[in-house]
Design a protein that fits this description.
Elements: H1 3-36, H2 46-55, H3 57-82, H4 85-91, H5 96-132, E1 149-153, E2 164-173, E3 177-186, E4 192-207, E5 213-227, E6 233-244, H6 249-256, H7 264-276, H8 282-305, H9 318-346, H10 350-376
Helix pairs in contact: 1-2, 1-3, 1-5, 2-5, 3-5, 3-8, 3-9, 5-8, 7-8, 8-9, 8-10, 9-10
Length: 377
């Protein structure tokens, strides 16, 4: 690695860290102010609010990394341009291709960092944040209807009286348990053959007749109603009931959190589950592809900052051009959100929509870089 490349990396990363710390401090303060208004509700304490804000920091870092990379990169490149250090490097044989390659290599650690945050840190930290906010209801559990959470069990039941099963969960509890469970089972004619109601339920392991380990539900405080073709019904009360299910703990976890807080591998499995039940997957596919293309967006933001280094300070307006670069970054963020909403409304291909804003930003950066390089000759 060239000496100037190392100097460039040091300049970019020093300013990136300063910008990110500033953003994290500001947004964490805003989160804390918002939580202060909830103090005292259902035993929600100041310690709980501080814990919630603390464990939200990885998510805040993840969301602000592209913008921080852009502003930190613009700051570093503007300093190199104002001190004529980049001009001296160009005169010494530092070509535009070398600059683009250097920025690409500098973006790799940031891309790796956002992947680690997304796949390892955020699912764990968001779960802890939700636990801290549990007394007043987790902000993550925003998908429940008034009737609770609804799931379709995709397991093919080896019973002529059961061909479809729908599960309604009233309230989620710690350690993968739920309260107020209602299960509706239908036969091949779409006639309800059995209704099950339970006080609580939790996941368990069940050994099938083939000797394989399968997911099972353990229901407690069960009230069971069997219906028959002649219109008669039979009611039964049981202290415990176990049955095999296609709904796994991971599926339940995916239901109880927002897609943005899930790791890519969790999203992938949940999309498979929804497809197996012939349910709409566009929202989850979009978030999945956005996570996979997120590192490209970080690279694009650093590349957008590179043309500032070619600006001649004697031409003036350096601060204005830096401000314009920040405006372009904000426009990229808004465009990314706009495309996300259009995908859900228009049912557009999730992969294409997720990667398009990053590619547009990268092409724009290369075009502006070429123009700036020509003017600097």
């Amino acid at each position: 690695m060239r000496l100037f490349d190392r100097y460039l990396f040091e300049s970019v990363y020093t300013r990136f860290v300063l910008v990110l710390l500033g953003f994290v401090g500001m947004f964490s303060f805003f989160d804390l102010v918002a939580e202060v208004g909830q103090l005292g509700r259902s035993g929600y304490r100041l310690e709980d609010a501080l814990t919630y804000v603390f464990f939200r920091i990885p998510s805040v870092c993840y969301e602000l990394t592209p913008l921080s990379a852009l502003i930190g990169g613009l700051w570093a490149m503007a300093d190199l341009a104002s001190s004529s250090e980049f001009t001296v490097a160009r005169a010494s044989g530092y070509r535009p291709v070398d600059a683009v390659l250097g920025v690409f290599i500098a973006s790799l650690p940031l891309a790796a960092a956002v992947l680690i945050l997304s796949e390892l840190v955020m699912p764990w930290s968001d779960a802890r944040a939700s636990q801290a906010r549990a007394p007043i209801g987790s902000a993550a559990s925003g998908q429940a209807l008034r009737s609770g959470y609804w799931l379709k069990d995709n397991l093919v039941v080896a019973d002529a009286r059961v061909s479809e099963r729908y599960i309604n969960l009233g309230q989620s509890m710690p350690k993968q348990s739920v309260r107020s469970v209602r299960i509706y089972e239908f036969d091949g004619s779409r006639r309800m053959s059995r209704y099950i109601e339970a006080d609580t339920a939790e996941f368990a392991s069940l050994t099938t007749a083939e000797g394989q380990l399968a997911t099972a539900w353990k229901l407690k405080g069960v009230r069971l109603v069997d219906t028959f073709e002649d219109g008669s019904a039979r009611s039964t009360t049981l202290p415990l009931l176990e049955f095999q299910s296609g709904v796994s703990p991971e599926t339940l976890d995916a239901l109880l959190v927002r897609p943005e807080q899930m790791a890519a591998h969790q999203l992938w499995r949940y999309v498979d589950y929804l497809k197996a039940g012939k349910q709409k997957t566009s929202r989850y596919e979009l978030v999945l592809w956005k996570k996979m293309s997120y590192p490209i967006g970080v690279m694009a933001m650093l590349l957008l900052a590179l043309p500032i280094a070619y600006v001649q300070t004697r031409s003036g307006y350096l601060g204005l051009k830096v401000f314009a670069g920040i405006g372009v970054g904000l426009a990229f963020h808004l465009l990314n959100n706009l495309f996300s909403h259009l995908t859900i409304l228009g049912d557009w291909p999730a992969a294409a929509v997720a990667i398009t804003p990053s590619l547009i930003a990268m092409l724009l950066a290369l075009s502006v870089l070429q123009m700036a390089q020509r003017r600097a000759l």
